[in-house]
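Predict the structure of Adenine-specific methyltransferase.
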Amino acid sequence: MRVLTEAQIERFFNILNQASELIQKAKDQSYLDSLIETLSVVQDQDATNLELSDADTQKLTHICSGFNRSDYDSETLRKGIQMAILKATRVDNIQANYQITPDTIANVIGYIISGIFRGTDTISLLDPAMGTGNLLTALYNQLHNTLNLTPSISGIENDDAMFELAADSVEIQHIHAELFHEDTIQNVLAPVVDVAVSDLPIGYYPIDENAKGFATHSENGHSYVHHLLIEFAMDHVKKGGFGLFLVPSQLFQTDEAKQLLKWMQGKVYLQGLLNLPGELFQNTAAQKAILILQNAGHDAKQVDPVMLGEFPSFKDQKAFAQFLTEIDAWEAQDLK
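Done. Here is the predicted structure for Adenine-specific methyltransferase.
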């Protein structure tokens, strides 16, 4: 079955790639823009509105006619789109914020969420910086399979191209999602959910005026966008609900962390900080961790001990499985 699935992923990617390369050459534009147009053609099976020559329109129609939605499950489609976006980042030399959260990390985040919410009937998620929607849809598919329920998902993204890719991705996967094409820091009217989750962009937010309404804003100069997004996200989580964020491992070791810690006091509990394997990053400064926060209320309390540690190498399957067992025990004995 796995061989068949890998073959299907490759087959779907080849359709996307051939079509995108044709459009890219014909219109002399980026691979990313061509991929966005390809996803629309694949879904609508209509290439007539792209203003291509008759010959190219015919070729494109033939390529995309090889796609039959019923041949694929959602996870296969997600992975095919992921492969195409990864190619776009290489071909177009796209900025770091377009980088996709690796599936290994998404799987770990989904594993933690599954453990916390095992036995629940419903679960709702919000990603305040969803990018291309890969993490959000990966979690949707994983939670749908492990918890045997249909998650309710919402996402926010300001970048035009990334939002279009996210919207196309959820549509082609037949996932119902509430997506907002807005700047999160301008206080989007997003839903209140059980879990906020995000691979947060790292750096400074450029519009100081927009950040003033946040307790985590910097008193001097630009504010860290990842601090603002954590605050926004947890403000949209239910009492006792959780936030899981990919953050710099050194999150609490900067001068700006004072405002973040001040905001957290009495409002959210720091329940865990799990460093990802150092081998995934170019250097120590770039290392990231999974931050686990819980809103106060509904019998939530500060766990003792806080889950701290570093994942072993994902290549060391025995050590990795043992670490997951430790997380299971912590969730069952301490967190709950």
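The first strand starts at residue 124 and ends at 127.
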